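cron nightly-structures :: item 1 of 1
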Amino acid sequence: MKTTFDLPPDLIREVKLRAVHEGRKLKDVAAELLNRGLAADQTSRMAPAATKGAIKLPLFPSPKTAPASRMSTEELLALEQETLTQEDHQRLGLSV
């Protein structure tokens, strides 16, 4: 199906350059980019809406080689439990 869009020249230039670099037709690249944008929009609509006063937790990025990335769920839970037990002992004044 054919249609006409009035798009900014910079945007058209970027899409044309991408088509040339990928050795593809302009219409195919444009269709793919539109599909990606629509899919991303659909995904964002499905995400739960932020509620007023919601707490945002901090994110602490770590390298993919960090020990936790190689641990199973059971190992992580055991480590967490061990840490909590040590903290409880410290609070009670018991030796760790």
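cron nightly-structures :: done
The first helix runs from residue 9 to 22.
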